[in-house]
Amino acid sequence: AQSVTQLGSHVSVSEGALVLLRCNYSSSVPPYLFWYVQYPNQGLQLLLKYTSAATLVKGINGFEAEFKKSETSFHLTKPSAHMSDAAEYFCAVSDAGTASKLTFGTGTRLQVTL
Amino acid sequence: DGGITQSPKYLFRKEGQNVTLSCEQNLNHDAMYWYRQDPGQGLRLIYYSQIVNDFQKGDIAEGYSVSREKKESFPLTVTSAQKNPTAFYLCASSPRWGELPGNTIYFGEGSWLTVV
């Protein structure tokens, strides 16, 4: 069974600092990987997705993630945090054969301070 | 505007009552999903529907029921058999069911259900 581990339920960074949110996956077959963002009391919005094309994936709002098969990781980064980035971030995985069923991590809440 | 509409946003239910959450999409998507979100547990799949008139149980289907009589609608009923129904419920849809790389899952704004 596939699974996703997000290290750190809460991450705090200063405005302008690097954002790094960690995600490791476990999948028996080549996966599809996703990062979603959730603002308070709202649904999830897709930030970016990896579907076996380029290993460095660029998403919306200046975020990007790199698929590293050797490390089974798909960490999310942004060079410079903005106050509007404060939200909860979810990593999700699906098997390439069943890309419509996502398994989510437990989420990381990002706090951005002045 | 195209999107997924969930209603109501907030709902209170007495113990022992059934309640139905509405989900409507005008994206012409074949597949629809219901997820439950609890603090610190991420999202868990309740039911999904690959196409109209079809649906399957997800990982936590006990105490829930769904129907898919129309392509655009996928209501979720939380029955009295659900032991801990208080949660945030998210409806989602995707263009089709399958392994296509472009098959992104889109989410609605969610519904809060509280049992009092």
Please write out the topology.
The complex is a heterodimer of chains A (114) and B (116).
Chain A: E1 3-5, E2 10-14, E3 19-21, E4 24-26, E5 31-38, E6 44-50, E7 56-58, E8 64-68, E9 73-78, E10 87-95, E11 103-104, E12 108-113
Chain B: E1 4-7, E2 10-13, E3 19-25, E4 31-37, E5 43-49, E6 56-57, E7 64-66, E8 76-78, E9 87-94, E10 106-107, E11 111-115
Parallel strand pairs in B: 2-11
Antiparallel strand pairs in B: 1-3, 3-8, 4-5, 4-9, 5-6, 7-8, 9-10, 9-11
Describe the structure concisely for a colleague.
Chain A is an all-beta fold. Chain A has strands at residues 3-5, 10-14, 19-21, 24-26, 31-38, 44-50, 56-58, 64-68, 73-78, 87-95, 103-104, 108-113. Chain B has strands at residues 4-7, 10-13, 19-25, 31-37, 43-49, 56-57, 64-66, 76-78, 87-94, 106-107, 111-115.
Describe this structure in words.
With 114 residues, chain A is mostly beta strands. Chain A is 0% helix and 53% strand. Chain A has no helices and twelve strands. In chain A, the strands form three sheets. In chain A, strands 2, 5, 6, 10, 11 and 12 form a six-stranded mixed beta sheet that branches. Chain A has a four-stranded antiparallel beta sheet with strand order 3-9-8-7, with no helix packed on it. In chain A, strands 1-4 form a two-stranded antiparallel ribbon. In chain A, strand 10 (87-95) and strand 11 form a beta hairpin. Chain B is mostly beta strands and 116 residues long. Chain B has strands spanning 4-7, 10-13, 19-25, 31-37, 43-49, 56-57, 64-66, 76-78, 87-94, 106-107, 111-115. In chain B, a hairpin with a 6-residue loop joins strand 5 (43-49) and strand 6 (56-57). The mean pLDDT of chain B is 91. The interface between A and B is medium-sized, with 25 and 30 residues.
